[in-house]
């Protein structure tokens, strides 16, 4: 099996990807969105052409708005992010957004999140992430409770967890880059995407390991002696088509969702897409090769 | 064999029936899908209730009566299918608080929605202080002359318009107040102990009626008789019924999505769904041939079953929910892929098609089970974690995992077995899978 044979190449690729992702997170940082920080987001649509940014800025300043950011979107929209609005500003919003009444405006979307709700969601997201990791750890331990020869079950679990970390770091790094490139912010949907990736890619890894487990049992029953690298490599090639095909159908629908789907779930679909490609990559090129390497270490340690 | 075929036929007929039901309910819009605010357009408001003046044991009651009051108020303005619910929250923000969630489909003017709920009159009862002059109200403030009475607007059960007093045609419009049981008792004591004093009823601090108590009123009703026109009396009764809030509320979060934006999201979502399904089916047909066709049928049945469930449960669809559904379509064929790959292996091992089907299913089952468990874990935790947006995703995703397991395993298996592939011939092998010859 060429993947097992040339595993060092794939380790290098994985390491590079991880480093790139970490660098991206370090350099660009993750921008927390409205859901987590509290504040206001307004999408203003100007069907008859939008006013110049300076005009709008002047009007917003006059209304007493502070620390806001204004961004052009589509061809006739502005996205305005600001702190929480006073009732007066909220009441006069159409007038403020349409200085001197020159550009008729319609408000497509207005979201205002209070600071306590933001804080609550932030804490909840962290708890949810911890809980998913814990449950998946327990699940892996349970799924591999009967495997022991020649690699003990906790090693499978550890490697599955390691690839899981890889599966999360890469999309998060990608998202940090997206935040830098197109100003996407981390919202509740992003957390949802990460948690979904966790659930998805762990099963991909488990399917491959499952096959290794089965091959080991068959070898044992038939009293066949085989190098562990052979057994694991065979499991990998047996599940290769399945892994790629499943991911392919999922990636297909996500690509369609990204290109054609609703605006509000575009980056959600993209994050999932990156996560699912990463997850498939790691369960093919990372998990089993790692298993073989760990087994090699164990053997040489014994001698 | 014939039994298997009969079952397969029944599944097809039932599936078509459900499909027809879903289609016709959309075609004549008799049972439209429930859409979340981000798709239908509308406003969501979240309020924090200020419960500092309420005893801990009364919190639930106060919140329930707050919800009822706001609900009546919202209904009064003719919003279709509004949602008003209380929510205990804040466990994760350090302090706990009681919230009121109001969803107004179709209302896209945020400020109007806020004033629709927020600006509610407060009903107060006061007693004229001993020795103060009633007719001096013009020059002195209300607080100089009146002191709060033991009874409050919270004790009011309802108000109604009545005509009473005069004889014959000269009926005067009055507003009759009905107090609740507790209020009736307080009011009876109050009137008994204060015969001869002036009792004032104030709406938003303005005196609307200041009668003199002539005798004890034990039955828990009071009559406000100003010089009302019938229309004024009617409006007062309405304000009293729908106005007085049991606890003050503060707006902490709003979300408004315009109808046009929502409509576009629905159109885009449907478009992505149609093309997504098409891409998956095309792929399955090209790669797996006959089993791929069966998987496509099973996938169609899965979609039909999910759509029917969306209506029957009913599931409120959001943009995230649609994304979950489309994602689940991509994942639903996973079980089929697992089974078919396993089947092809068994075929390569020299088994007959029928045996390969049996063994393929049996061997693929542990993998299918495990993979679905891990997705279910995520769905359950997301549902718990979620704001309404995420809950929409988690519910559809979890439902999708469960239903797809059912359709992939039982339905594709029944179809495959009902085809009766006993032959070991080349054609059978060809239609059962690519790549089996090598």
TrEMBL record, chain A:
Keywords linked to the UniProt accession: Cell inner membrane, Cell membrane, Membrane, Protein transport, Translocation, Transmembrane, Transmembrane helix, Transport
Recorded GO CC terms: plasma membrane
Record-annotated SSD domain positions: 125-293
Membrane topology category: Multi-pass membrane protein
Keyword Protein transport: yes
Cellular location(s): Cell membrane
GO terms classed as biological process: intracellular protein transmembrane transport; protein targeting; protein transport by the Sec complex
InterPro entries, per the entry: SecD/SecF_arch_bac, SecD/SecF_bac, SecD/SecF_CS, SecD_SecF_C, SecF_bac, SSD
PROSITE patterns cross-referenced by the UniProt entry: SSD
Descriptive protein name: Protein-export membrane protein SecF
Gene giving rise to this polypeptide: secF
UniProtKB/TrEMBL annotation, chain B:
Domain SecDF P1 head subdomain: 148-247
Segments crossing the lipid bilayer: 270-288, 293-313, 319-340, 373-390, 396-419
UniProt entry tagged with the keyword Aminoacyl-tRNA synthetase: no
One Gene Ontology cellular component annotation held by this UniProt entry: plasma membrane
One Gene Ontology biological process: intracellular protein transmembrane transport
Occurrences of domain Protein export membrane protein SecD/SecF C-terminal (ranges): 249-420
SUPFAM superfamilies: Multidrug efflux transporter AcrB transmembrane domain (SSF82866)
Molecular function, one GO term: protein-transporting ATPase activity
Membrane topology: Multi-pass membrane protein
InterPro entries, per database record: SecD, SecD/SecF_arch_bac, SecD/SecF_CS, SecD_1st, SecD_SecF_C, SecD_SecF_C_bact, SecDF_P1_head
Subcellular location: Cell membrane
Superkingdom: Bacteria
Annotated Protein translocase subunit SecDF P1 domain residues: 65-129
Main location: membrane
Function text: Part of the Sec protein translocase complex. Interacts with the SecYEG preprotein conducting channel. SecDF uses the proton motive force (PMF) to complete protein translocation after the ATP-dependent function of SecA.
Family to which the UniProt record says this protein belongs: Belongs to the SecD/SecF family. SecD subfamily.
Assembly description: Forms a complex with SecF. Part of the essential Sec protein translocation apparatus which comprises SecA, SecYEG and auxiliary proteins SecDF. Other proteins may also be involved.
The protein's name in its UniProt record: Protein translocase subunit SecD
Annotated gene: secD
């Amino acid at each position: 099996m060429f993947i097992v044979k040339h595993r060092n190449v794939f380790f290098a690729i994985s390491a590079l990807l991880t480093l790139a992702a970490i660098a991206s997170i370090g350099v660009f940082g993750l921008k927390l969105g409205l859901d987590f920080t509290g504040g206001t987001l307004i999408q203003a649509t100007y069907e008859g052409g939008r006013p110049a940014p300076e005009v709008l800025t002047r009007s917003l300043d006059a209304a007493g708005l502070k620390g806001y950011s204004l961004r052009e979107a589509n061809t006739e929209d502005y996205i305005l992010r600001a702190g929480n609005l006073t009732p007066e500003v909220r009441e006069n919003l159409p007038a403020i957004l349409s200085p001197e009444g020159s550009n008729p405006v319609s408000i497509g979307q207005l979201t205002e999140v209070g600071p306590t709700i933001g804080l609550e969601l932030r804490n909840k997201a962290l708890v949810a992430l911890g809980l998913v990791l814990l449950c998946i750890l327990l699940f892996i331990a349970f799924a591999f409770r009967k495997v022991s020869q020649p690699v003990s079950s906790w090693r499978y679990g550890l490697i599955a967890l390691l690839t899981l970390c890889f599966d999360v770091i890469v999309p998060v790094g990608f998202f940090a880059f997206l935040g830098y490139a197109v100003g996407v912010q981390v919202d509740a949907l992003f957390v949802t995407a990460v948690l979904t990736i966790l659930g998805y890619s762990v099963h991909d890894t488990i399917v491959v390991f499952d096959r290794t487990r089965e091959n080991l049992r068959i070898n044992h029953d038939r009293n066949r002696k085989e190098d562990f690298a052979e057994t694991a490599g065979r499991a990998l090639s047996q599940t290769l088509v399945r892994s790629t095909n499943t991911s392919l159908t999922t990636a297909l629908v996500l690509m369609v969702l990204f290109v054609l789907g609703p605006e509000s779930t575009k980056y959600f679909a993209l994050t999932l897409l990156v996560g699912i490609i990463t997850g498939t990559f790691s369960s093919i090129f990372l998990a089993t090769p790692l298993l073989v390497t760990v087994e090699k270490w164990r053997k040489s340690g014994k001698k | 064999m014939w039994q298997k075929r009969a079952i397969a036929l029944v599944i097809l007929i039932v599936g078509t029936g459900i499909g027809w039901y879903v289609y016709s309910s959309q075609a004549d819009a008799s049972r439209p899908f429930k859409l979340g605010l981000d798709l239908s357009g509308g406003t969501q408001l979240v309020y924090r209730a200020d419960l500092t003046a309420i005893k801990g044991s009364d919190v639930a009651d106060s919140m329930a009566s707050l919800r009822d009051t706001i609900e009546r108020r919202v209904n009064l303005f003719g919003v279709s299918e509004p949602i008003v619910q209380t929510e205990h929250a804040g466990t994760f923000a350090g302090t706990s608080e009681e919230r009121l969630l109001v969803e107004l489909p179709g209302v896209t003017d945020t400020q109007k929605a806020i004033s629709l709920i927020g600006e509610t009159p407060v009903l107060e009862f006061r007693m004229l202080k001993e020795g103060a002059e009633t007719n001096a109200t013009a020059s002195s403030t209300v607080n100089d002359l009146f002191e709060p009475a033991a009874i409050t607007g919270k004790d009011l059960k309802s108000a109604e318009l009545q005509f009473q007093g005069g004889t014959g045609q000269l009926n005067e419009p009055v507003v009759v107040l009905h107090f609740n049981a507790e209020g009736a008792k307080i009011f009876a004591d109050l009137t008994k102990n204060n015969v001869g004093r002036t009792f004032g009823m104030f709406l938003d601090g303005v005196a609307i009626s200041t009668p003199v108590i002539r005798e004890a009123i034990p039955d828990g009703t009071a009559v406000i008789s100003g010089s009302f026109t019938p229309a004024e009396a009617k409006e007062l009764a309405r304000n009293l019924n729908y106005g007085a809030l049991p606890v003050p509320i503060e707006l902490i979060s709003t979300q408004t999505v315009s109808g046009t934006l929502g409509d576009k999201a629905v159109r885009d979502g449907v478009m992505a769904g149609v093309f997504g399904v098409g891409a998956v089916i095309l792929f399955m047909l090209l790669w797996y041939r006959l089993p791929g066709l069966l998987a496509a049928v099973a996938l169609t049945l899965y979609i039909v079953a999910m759509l029917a469930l969306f209506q029957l449960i009913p599931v409120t669809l959001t943009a995230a929910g649609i994304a979950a559904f489309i994602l689940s379509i991509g994942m639903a064929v996973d079980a089929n892929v697992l089974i078919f790959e396993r089947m092809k292996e068994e075929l390569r091992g020299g088994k007959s098609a029928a045996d390969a089907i049996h063994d393929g299913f049996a061997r693929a089952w542990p993998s299918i089970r495990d993979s679905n468990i891990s997705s279910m874990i995520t769905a359950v935790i997301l549902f718990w974690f979620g704001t309404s947006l995420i809950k929409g995703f988690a519910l559809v995703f979890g439902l999708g995992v469960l239903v797809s397991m059912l359709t992939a395993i039982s339905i594709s298996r029944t179809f495959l077995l009902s085809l009766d592939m006993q032959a070991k011939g080349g054609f059978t092998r060809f239609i059962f899978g690519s790549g089996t010859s090598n």
